[in-house]
Amino acid sequence: MAVSRLSVLVAALACCCLARLAQCGGGGGGQNYTSMFSFGDSLTDTGNLLVSSPLSFNIVGRFPYGMTYFHRPTGRCSDGRLVVDFLAQAFGLPLLQPYLSRGEDVRQGVNFAVGGATAMDPPFFEGIGASDKLWTNLSLSVQLDWFDKLKPSLCGSPKSCKKYFSRSLFLVGEIGGNDYNYAFFKGKTLDDAKSYVPTVSSAIIDATERLIKAGAMHLVVPGNLPMGCSSAYLTLHPGRSRSDYDAVGCLRTYNDFAQRHNAMVQQKLQVLRLKYPKARIMYADYYGAAMSFAKNPKQFGFKQGPLKTCCGGGGPYNFNPKASCGVRGSSVCADPSAYANWDGVHLTEAAYHAIADSILHGPYTSPRLL
């Protein structure tokens, strides 16, 4: 009889613990987020570029984009889901609606990210002579303005907003990568780009602070990916000797540059944490998460080398700027899940899934997301 009572007690405690876990983490432990808001560029955009851009930029609206999960193009710069999609699903939320084509019900979240977006506003690129490279003028500050316009439909008073946003997750990026991409593809040197890092990183921090002042309490700020592993950079900015490449085959100088940016973002985030101790400001190490599968692709299920593109137009990395993914002359691999690199600039759904898992369950978010 005593054993039976003990079994019942253990079972009851187990149910209680499981209920608490479900309550705290949407099935994953941690915070029970009831809504999610996202800002950034093409690594996060779920359709805003497709709605806002001229037809010449609507490559992402063509097959094979979206072939894996959605089986149709959705405006995502990948074959399927992005990190933001996996985070939403992990917390039991619907995939975020793009702001520019949202429905009436937005209380569970909206995505403000735009493919090609920058942390800096257009005058910055006019100043460095790179305006002609911009895909869009819908920069981070424009996205924040969109959020401000949407806010009254989410909560009607300071008290209700505080309660509502205390259970919201804000994803601030990835953003900033395009600021450097436009500069590099305009012919700017690494030294030129290094001089932009304080300004670009400050814009990201200012945006994060603006959201905190608007009521955000839980914010994830991702760093930049290892651009030296991008097949676009490997093709357009090849090294002069073997010593220019690391053991994986990535360009050392460009990866060092990405780490320089990420280090400055982290330094500035630490200052922001001291200023707003009640806010939970998390840095997501996209660089470290991506390098983990670049160094050990088979461990993550990638059968192809991490630098070769699934969808492209030939060459050593299957990247050809004149026959990019979705354009005549390009072709797509049979199994995108075997590749980490999708189109030379963006990653596959499988790679984004690996990054999402790493920041949810691994050591790549500080402090931990869950």
Automatic annotation (TrEMBL):
<dbReference type="GO" id="GO:0016788">
    <property type="term" value="F:hydrolase activity, acting on ester bonds"/>
</dbReference>
<dbReference type="InterPro" id="IPR001087">
    <property type="entry name" value="GDSL"/>
</dbReference>
<comment type="similarity">
    <text>Belongs to the 'GDSL' lipolytic enzyme family.</text>
</comment>
<dbReference type="Pfam" id="PF00657">
    <property type="entry name" value="Lipase_GDSL"/>
</dbReference>
<protein>
    <recommendedName>
        <fullName>GDSL esterase/lipase</fullName>
    </recommendedName>
</protein>
<keyword id="KW-0378">Hydrolase</keyword>
<feature type="signal peptide">
    <location>
        <begin position="1"/>
        <end position="24"/>
    </location>
</feature>
<dbReference type="InterPro" id="IPR035669">
    <property type="entry name" value="SGNH_plant_lipase-like"/>
</dbReference>
<dbReference type="InterPro" id="IPR036514">
    <property type="entry name" value="SGNH_hydro_sf"/>
</dbReference>
<keyword id="KW-0732">Signal</keyword>
<keyword id="KW-0325">Glycoprotein</keyword>
